[in-house]
Amino acid sequence: MATERRGGSSMHEGCVPWPEPVARAYREQGLWNGDVLGSWPPAGPDGGSRTALVAPSGTLTYEALDRAAARTAAGLLRAGLTTGDRIVVQLPNDADLVVLSLACFRTGVLPVYALPAHRSAEITHLVSASDAVAYVCPDRVLDCDHRDIAREVRERTGSLRHVFVAGDPGPYTPLAALDAEPLELPAPDPEDVAFFLLSGGTSGPPKLIPRTHADYTYQLRETARLCAVGPDDVYLAALPTAHNFALGCPGVLGVLRAGGTVVLAPAPTADVCFPLVARTGVTLTSLVPPLVPLWLDAAEWADDDLSSLRVLQVGGARLDPQTAREVPKALGCTLQQVYGMAEGLLNFTRLDDPEEVVVHTQGRPLSPADEVRVIREDGTEAGPGETGELFTRGPYTLRGYYRAEERNATRFTEDGYYRSGDLVRRTPGGDFEVVGRINDVVNRGGEKVPAQEVEEHLLAALPVTAAAVIGLPDPLMGERTCACVVPRDPAHPPALSDVQAALRARGLAGYKLPDQLVVLDRMPLTGVGKIDKRTLKADLEA
Ligand code: OOB
């Protein structure tokens, strides 16, 4: 891939390109077709007056969104930002985030998408890992003052020249100041990096994932096609838009690209989202598994009209089959399981798959060009039904993390496959079941206790709504197994002896029975809503 096409700054420094013969094949097959992010929304004859965004701060037509993006793009350039500059963007689900993203895509300024839940430790890491020149944040959200974060990050890093604040800027620059008369801008090179996502691993600091215009527009087109999304669709972004799931599967960008309407929810809870569904006629939305039982419960008593909902996508972590089975009846829509990763590869159950596939599997790859292998511990290819680690490469899967040569040497094979760390098996029908993570194992004095397996038994055997199994340091065994549960009835939590008896009754090996039980009101969650085992561990070890 060529560098320094515009602005004089290399777009590919620190990135690992696809090998040229592979890139050529993707071009020739029309997978990378010259499409770039931000060239839409289309402001065509009737396109302009349609509703593009329904956001907490107001509603924007396509025309208004296009104009706002053009003015913000000019504002970025006037503020001295230039092609290839990284900026850490941490904005909640509101119009600013979409407008700024489009403006960045048009100017070649590269957003590094932080999650709303990130705090000064993560933002500091992201700024220094990317040498970001700007941090964009809201003034405050609940009890968090992001201007305090900005101050700390500035003290600890050297590269930040700007802090742009949505709302009351305090000592910084208002985000609204990024505004100038629109300029004629050269189109970006489709194979340039457009933005960075964060690796979703719940252990270790996040790594930066470069996504190009070509790879991401391909993802947007294909996911929109798979979900049959068109101009009449209304997508509800309940999860943070900064996460790949809500951003582009097809999510906010894919639905805008298809000419539909995007509704940005300030929170993913049923009390916030149900009235939005009813008011705006939402047809498609996505959730992480811990939210699903809450939506199902709420649907029982809520009187909001949810009949417009066509598809509920659930992904990010394992959805238990009992809950999966209840979705269509309780919400009156099709369930689609999504097994994806910010690094690229996306798997989906299809809208017309049989119920058993939708309930029990996490689907199959989006694209025929996705190359996927299931590899046993000894490095050989696993057969159907056998568990192994998923390796993948393809037209929208990265070839290396940003500026991470050492890490890349272990996370990628020599022929460019990304080692996902996920343990999967393939059904005879070709669908994946995600059975765990390679290192999500408690090593109990040599006995390996697969956390997810025990969690599934806990959920099935006990009156609990959430379960997490973690290893805690133990003087005798190295690690002991700790089961953390949220009881359905807080007044009657189970005791350790109940848990052990229930699991033993299910035929579980003695060494897999938890040594310790912790009863919680609720689980700590990561920014996107997965159970945050790292925090759980840190809290319990302290
Ligand atoms: C999504 O992306 P990330 O980057 O936050 O996390 C990726 C990891 C996967 O490697 C896998 O371990 C886990 O999250 N995961 C699932 C899953 N979907 C993701 N585990 C079990 N079942 C599933 N359905 O989480 C993500 C990105 C795009 C779309 C959907 C999810």
Describe this structure in words.
It is built from 16 helices and 27 strands. By secondary structure, it is an alpha/beta fold. It folds into 2 domains: 419 residues, Rossmann fold (3-Layer(aba) Sandwich); 101 residues, ANL, C-terminal domain (GMP Synthetase, Chain A, domain 3), CATH 3.30.300.30. Helix 2 crosses helix 3 and helix 4 crosses helix 5. Bound molecules: 5'-O-[(R)-(benzoyloxy)(hydroxy)phosphoryl]adenosine. 5'-O-[(R)-(benzoyloxy)(hydroxy)phosphoryl]adenosine binds next to helix 7, strand 16, strand 21 and strand 22.
Walk across the major sheet and give the strand order: 2-1-13-12-14-15-16-17-18
**What is the approximate shape?**
globular
Helix content: 25-40%
Q: Say what the CATH topology of the largest domain is.
A: Rossmann fold
Q: Tell me, rounded to a whole number, the average pLDDT.
A: 93
What is the CATH C-level name of the largest domain? Alpha Beta
Helical segment tally? Answer: 16
Radius of gyration: 23 Å
User: Total number of β-strand segments?
Assistant: 27
Q: How large a portion of the residues is in β-strands, by DSSP E?
A: 15-25%
- Provide the low-confidence segments as ranges: 1-9
Give the CATH superfamily of the largest domain.
ANL, N-terminal domain
Which ligands occur here? 5'-O-[(R)-(benzoyloxy)(hydroxy)phosphoryl]adenosine
Distance between the termini: 49 Å
